[in-house]
């Protein structure tokens, strides 16, 4: 097999004494027995995407290992020392349940400390939202979480947080990446200064739990809490370190944990994918819910930023909600609570993303608040909070099963979101309603919005090229009609240009550049295409809607909307 010269140059660099013997042996083994794997391990450098840097663990520039993470950390150390010259620089580090996460977290701590930076390192795995909280609680300059979120077991990753507790955004991200890219591997300082590494746990835990309960509780009577039967699964992840404690502290005692998925395990043995977006991941939780006649199922991904929710429909069957539905239920509830308590003064806002349901805009208008819409990723909602300090943030989410309640945590937070959804469910049940009925009521009030997501996986070099070509085709040969509806507008976030096809007008898009394309149809339907920033996937998001005259027509209208989505998918040949 022929291997490109630029790949061989990188391989040869990794065979020098800068790299340890174990690494060199693994590379030599690949040269002889797995040249294809060698090529994939070195053909590019791992890049920062939507949610930090994620990749397969192993040797090479396109893998997660002590050298790629060491280089990141050395670059970040250099940048922090330049930006905060003369200050005592502090960083917090957390890690999740993934294989090697604790080892990699210690290597990252070592490099920071070797550069004279004070490190607060969690003594055991913790949820990602707790790290975001800890950055601000401890007045840190930055934070790191070692996690690959919901990716398969062979992955790990590196998320970087800034002083505000939010993930890196421009211009810092670009500046830091530049520093990292200019570094040589030989410049990484791995020699730890142990006196600068302080282990943290219980004190931060209790502050985080207390803050969450204060932020996501809304005067639910104890009797209503006692009457709500909850099934919870951490899917072998870190949320078990926080969610049972938070629910208990908030007064929810009827919590039933899926025993087989309770113990953290980086191999995620009982699921194909530890992602609450995937219905299969919640199978065991749904079975337990039916067995014990539970009202609600809640589950989290390995680092506890995403949540999955299932509730009883009108026939009493468990129904999985999508991320848009949970986001809308939670936002509508928060807005109503703020209104009732007289806290809406006209300077509040909620947050959403360009690929999420347009219903968020309708809710904002009804309650007289602003809905700020950004790119995919909670770092953009966190940036809104930082950029508009005179406005109060109520809550916000995105379609990918994430939500943020208030601004104590500046990233998607399944810990607070699960407490909030239990509050809503408990209050609805006590009032003779249900979460499902509340969802139907919203559809009657605002129109029935139905969203759907398709993810197409394309692995390796060939896959990356296929995804690239799909986006080129959609740009260079734009569709003019889809499923019998004219395309009236196309927004291209990569070129920052939009085109109103009805008036032949062009307009500027002020949101930061991103590889996203959105088609709007004449009937108000919306189709969005974007390659994933953290996985080898291209994602297509669909949103359709129509009037729901009465609650009784919910099923019939849902059937029509599902059929409309199916027609669009078939016509775009995405089946």
From TrEMBL:
| Superkingdom of this protein's organism | Bacteria
Nucleotide-binding keyword on record: no
Show the GO MF annotations: magnesium ion binding; phosphopentomutase activity
* Domain Alpha-D-phosphohexomutase alpha/beta/alpha: start-end pairs: 47-184, 215-310, 322-440
An example GO BP is: purine ribonucleoside salvage
Q: What UniProt keywords are attached to this protein's entry?
A: Isomerase, Magnesium, Metal-binding, Phosphoprotein
Give a yes or no for keyword rRNA-binding in this entry: no
Name the CDD domains for this protein: PGM2 (cd05799)
* Pfam families the record matches: PGM_PMM_I, PGM_PMM_II, PGM_PMM_III
Which cofactors are required for activity?
Answer: Mg(2+)
- What does the similarity note say? Belongs to the phosphohexose mutase family.
Q: What is this protein called?
A: Phosphoglucomutase
Which species? Flavobacterium sediminis
